[in-house]
Amino acid sequence: MALRIFPINLGNLTMDASGLVLFRTPGVKTTIPFLGFLITGGQEPILVDTGPRDPEAFAAFGMECVRTPEMTLDHHLAQHGLRRRDIRQVVHTHAHLDHVGGDDLFPMTTTVALARRELEFAASGVMGPGMYTAHDTKHLIDRLHTRGALRLFDVDGTFEEEVIPGVAVRLSGGHTPGSLSVLVETDEGMVNIAGDIAYNIDDQLVSPLLDQASHEPTITGNHAMTSLEEKRALKKALSDSRFLLVGHDHPALVAGGRIVGRYTDAISNPAADVTKAANYQPIPVAAAAA
C-alpha cells in the first residue's frame, strides 16, 4: 500500500505579515494555518507535529489564534478512521509552541521524536520563553525520563534516520538548529515535510519579495539561524523534493528546483491527498520565472 499524506489544520493565527516574510507589508494583518500532517499507508500511521496547546498563548504577541472543534487532533484523526491510541509515533519538525503543543494529549506509551539538537536549543533560553514554552519543554523532558516516550534523532546533515520504512528524517536547519525534514517516499516522488523553513511560498520562492538574483529565496521574518543558513535550507529542500509541505502554507509541487504548482484546496479538505501531482494547480510560467 502506497504512503499517503494528509494536511490537518490545528488552528488559524492572525498576525502581522512582516512576521512571516522579512519586510513584507508591515502593519497588514494576515491569517495562516497551524498545520500538522498525517502519514498513512505504511507500517503504522505517523503524525508530524501536533499544533499549539493553548490558543490564548499568542495574545501576548498581539496575535489572535482561533481553533474550532474541526481543528482538533481528534476530529482530524476521525476523518481517517483513527484515534489517538492508533498513533504510536509523533515526529516533530521542530519544538516551537505551535508544533508541539498537542504532545501531552498522547500517553507516554506514544513515542514523540525530535532532533536532540532541537531539545537542547529549546532548553537553552536563546529564543526566550515565547517560542519554546515552559509547559511544552517540561513535557518533553518528562518524556525523556520515561522509558520509550521520547526518541532523539542525531542527524547532522551527513545521514538520515528511518522512522518506518519509506519515512526518514534529515537535518534541514534554517529555521532552528534542530529543524528536521520528514522525507516520505511516495509513488510520485519524495515528499518533504519541512516545518517552518518557509512561511509563505509565493513571496519566498515563487516570486521572491526582496531578492533579485535568479533562484534566490527570500528569508522569513522569524528564524534562529543566519540568513545564509535559511537560504541553504530552502535550496536543499527544492533540490530533491517533488512535493514541499511547510507548516503554515498550501502544499507545493516542485520540478527543476522551482515551485511549479500549488494545492490550494488541501488545507480545508480532510481527504486531500497531497502526494498526487494531478491535484496541484499549475503556476503560470511568468510567475514561476519571476
How would you characterize this protein structure?
The chain has 290 residues and is of the alpha+beta class. The chain has one domain: Ribonuclease Z/Hydroxyacylglutathione hydrolase-like (Metallo-beta-lactamase, Chain A), CATH 3.60.15. The chain is 19% helix and 27% strand. The chain contains eight helices and 15 strands. The chain has helices at 73-78, 97-100, 116-122, 128-131, 134-144, 201-206, 227-240, 285-288; strands spanning 4-16, 29-40, 46-48, 64-66, 89-91, 111-115, 150-153, 161-164, 167-171, 180-186, 189-193, 243-245, 252-255, 258-262, 281-282. An eight-stranded mixed sheet has the order 8-9-10-11-12-13-14-15. A seven-stranded mixed sheet has the order 4-1-2-3-5-6-7. The protein is globular. It starts with a strand and ends with a helix.
Write the layout of secondary structure elements.
Blueprint (H helix, E strand, L loop, with lengths): L3 E13 L12 E12 L5 E3 L15 E3 L6 H6 L10 E3 L5 H4 L10 E5 H7 L5 H4 L2 H11 L5 E4 L7 E4 L2 E5 L8 E7 L2 E5 L7 H6 L20 H14 L2 E3 L6 E4 L2 E5 L18 E2 L2 H4 L2
Parallel strand pairs: 3-5, 5-6, 6-7, 11-12
Antiparallel strand pairs: 1-2, 1-4, 2-3, 8-9, 9-10, 10-11, 12-13, 13-14, 14-15
